Amino acid sequence: MIRTQAHLGFISALLALLMLLGGMTAANAHEIRPSIASLAFQNDGTYSLSIDTNVEALIARIGGEHDDTDNAPTAEQYNRLRGLAPAELEAEFKKFAVDWLKSGILKFGDQVADLTVEDITIPEIGDVEAPRDTIVVLRGALTGGARQFVWSWPQESGASVLRVERPGQELQAQFFDAGEVSEAFDIGVAAPRSFMAKSWDYLVIGYTHILPKGLDHILFVLGLFLLATTWRPLIWQVTAFTLAHSVTLGLGLYGVVNISPSIVEPLIALSIVYVAVENVLTNKLHAWRPLIVFGFGLLHGLGFAGILTEIGMPRSDFVLGLVSFNVGVELGQLTVILLAWLAVGWAMKKDWYRQRIVIPASLLIAAIGAYWFLERTILS
To answer: Of 109, 134, 249, 265, which is the most exposed, with the fewest CB atoms less than 10 Å away?
Structure first.
C-alpha cells in the first residue's frame, strides 16, 4: 500500500510538471524575446538606431527573467498596454522615451548619445495574447570626435542583440544578456572578436532556445525519451533528429529553404502529437520511427533557422554560428534527457512503468501539442 501511494505520488508530481509546461501554452505570447537593435553609421557623421522590440514590455519594464509575463509585478500595466491602439501606444511610448533615452543605452565615451525618436511602427491590435513587434527608429549625430561607443541595454528589459552596420564593412552582430554592458566598439573599423567569444555567443543562444524557452522542443524530446527503455533506441532517435534539424538549419540560414513560420510552427505542434500518440499505441521502437523523427527534425530545423536569421548573423560567421548554435541545441536536448532520466530512470525497468508513467505522460504531451496546433491555426 505504501509502495502504491509512493508510485501515485511520483506520477502526480510528473504530471504536475508536464501540466506546468502545458500551462505555458502561450509561450510565444507570454515570453519576452531578445530585442534586436541595428545601429547604422553613415558617412556624413549621423547614425540611426532601429530597435525591433516589445514596446509594451519595455514600458512596463518586464524582462526575460519572467517565463510568463502574467507573473511579473507590472503584469496589469503590460496587459493594458497590449490592448491599446497603435496611436495610443505610440503616445505612451513617447512619454516613456523622455527619460528612457537619457538612461544611456548608447554611449560615446562618457557621453550618453543624444537620440531622438524619428519613427515608430506599431502593428494594429490583433490577438492581445500575442506580442506586437514594434520597430522604433532613433537618430543622432556624432559629436566631439567620438571614436568608440558602448551598448548597455537595461537589466529590466531582458536580453538584446546588437547589429552594427558600417559603410563598406560587413555586418557585426553580438548577443548580450540582460544588463550586460558591451566592451568599447570602434565606430570606424570593427575590432575582430575571438573565435571562442563568437562561438560562445551562438552556443548560448542555441542552448537557451531549448532551455528554458523551447517548450515545444522540450516536449518533443520528452516524447522520444518516453518510448525508449534503453539508451540505444533513444540514441537512434536523437541522432536522426539532430541530423535532420542540422540540414534544414543550414539550408534555412543560407536562404535555400524559406518556409513561413505560420506553416512550420503548427507542423511542429503536430510532430509532438504524433510522437506522443505513437508512444500510447506501441510499446517498442519500430523501424519507421527514426525515419519519422528525421522528417520532424527537418521541421524543427526550420524553426531554429528563424532564430539565427532574426539575429542577422554576418555571412562570414555562418559556419561558425551554425556549428556553435547546433552544439548549444544538442546540449539543451541532452540536458532535457538527463533531467528526465534522473526523474524516472530508476523506474524504467518496472513492470508498471508503461501504464503509470509512459501512457499518462504521453497523453498529456499529445493534448498540449494538439492545443498548440489549434492555437497556431484556428485560434490565431
So the answer is: 109
